[in-house]
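TL;DR need structure tokens for one chain.
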Amino acid sequence: MQAVILAGGQGTRLRPLTLTCPKPIVPLLNVPFLHYQLAWLRQHGIREAVLACSYGVDEIRRVLGGRHAAGIRLSYAIEREPLGTAGALRNAADAGNGPLVVLNGDVLTDLDLSGVIRLHAERGAQATISLTSVDDPTRYGLVETEPDGRMLRFLEKPEPEHVTVQTINAGVYILERTLLELIPTGRVVSMEREFFPELLARGIGFFGHTISAYWLDIGNAETYRQAQVDLLTGTVTTGVQPPGIRRGNLWIGDESSISAEARLTGPAVIGRRARLASGCRVGPFSVLGDRTTMERGSHIDGAVLWEDVRVGPGARLSACVVADRCRIGANAEIGPGAVLGAGSVVPDGARLPA
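>> reply
TL;DR here they are.
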């Protein structure tokens, strides 16, 4: 069975992080995000995936390397012009018969995909979408079903007074390939606004399946950092381990130099060739990328640092995200919710957010 991962967007909700790093390869615990999706697919017997993408393709290929990643044969369907989610699917998927797994490119989940595929077959469905319950569906879009699971309607980002259920599209679909012929070519086509309503209008066997598994859209800075916390606590099960040697609830990368007077409290991840000076403190849920340097007396607590970051003496970082090659000045403070794009320089003594 083949999978298609829809990853054609530019990751605007994750900016400034995605200005220099395409969303499919933003690091989670120092592992490119796409590895988690591919490993999950492989756990459920999928051995071939197509990445439908248009932004940063060369960088994605460089990071993932070759035609195989996480035990999956990976190919690329590149959009020269934006095609929308359904248009990208039509452009990426092989024609023919049989079911196809389709996955949004910003979903971290451990749902039982094998079970969803079985249910799809048992129902004789032509289309099955996974649904999940959220506290605030107005940020996404409601999906209503009949008692037997048949799809009833989609309501895109409703006003609070129009909320009838808490279930939303979880971005994991099982589709029979013959349905791809219903997607027009040569223009932008949306799954949610055009393709799925067309299936309803035609009376096609279209079902929803509400999942109870972990599910998170990592497409904004808040949920991106939350994903790291959930991975470290084991809230989501992926089978992907951070690189490095595990020591209790710490992962320490190769060739790292950590002072005997530094204090590390896990769960936390330290990347390869990191340098932690005397008096450094690394608190729980911190992630330090490769070649990160913490100078004397600096503190990090719940922060996610990418590669080649330098933290000046006495600086303090808490619950923030710092991209590659940033320089944090001496005694600077970066607080919860702050996000620094690649190459940012924070002066000595600065306070962020101000």
